[in-house]
Specification:
Shape: globular
CATH topology: Butyryl-Coa Dehydrogenase, subunit A, domain 1
Radius of gyration: 18 Å
Low-confidence stretches: none
Number of domains: 1
Number of strands: 2
Strand content: 5-15%
Distance between the termini: 48 Å
Strand order of the largest sheet: 1-2
Order of helices and strands: HHHHHHEE
CATH superfamily: Acyl-CoA dehydrogenase/oxidase, N-terminal domain
CATH class: Mainly Alpha
Mean pLDDT: 91
Largest sheet: 2 strands, antiparallel
Length: 158
């Protein structure tokens, strides 16, 4: 059975090149030190945002690039080739929080959160772990409950 790769468009190749060059210049020189020191450089988020990598799957109306999944994955692969942890940060941000807000958020929430997330001014995350559940979302018991203007977080500290 012969496998055929999907040919990339000119735009996809351009984004791939930008991602590769960014990763080689801004990440590769520091990966060993960052891993050894368990260090995360927050300035990297602003740089990724400035290039549009934090808003790849966010529509242009919310300051994103609005690219398709393949284009996003091509850029992600280039970052992952240099540093998997930075790629995970990019992946989580572009998938779970941004896409949940995009799909289920109100217009006000989309305006308030998606634009700064696309620009790298806010970094989205996803927490999924409990001592008895690990990363099995169905077994988690922690809850956030609204109490007036506040939220009460109930759960077991790990």
């Amino acid at each position: 059975m012969a496998w055929a790769l999907t040919p990339l468009t000119e735009e996809q190749r351009s984004i791939q090149t930008v991602a590769r060059e960014f990763a080689e210049a801004e990440i590769a020189p520091y990966t060993e030190e960052w891993d050894r020191e368990s260090f995360f450089d927050p300035a990297l988020i602003g740089k990724l945002g400035a290039l549009g990598f934090l808003g790849m799957m966010i529509p242009e109306e919310y300051d994103g690039l609005g690219v398709d999944t393949l284009t996003y994955l091509v850029a992600l692969e280039e970052i992952a080739t240099i540093d998997a942890s930075i790629a995970v940060t990019l992946s989580v941000h572009n998938s779970l929080p941004t896409q949940m807000i995009l799909k289920w958020g109100s217009d006000l929430q989309k305006e308030r959160f998606l634009k700064p997330m696309a620009r790298g001014e806010l970094l989205g995350a996803f927490a999924l772990s409990e001592p008895e559940a690990g990363s099995d979302a169905a077994s988690m018991t922690t809850q956030a409950v609204r109490d007036g203007d506040d939220w009460i977080l109930n759960g077991t500290p790990s």
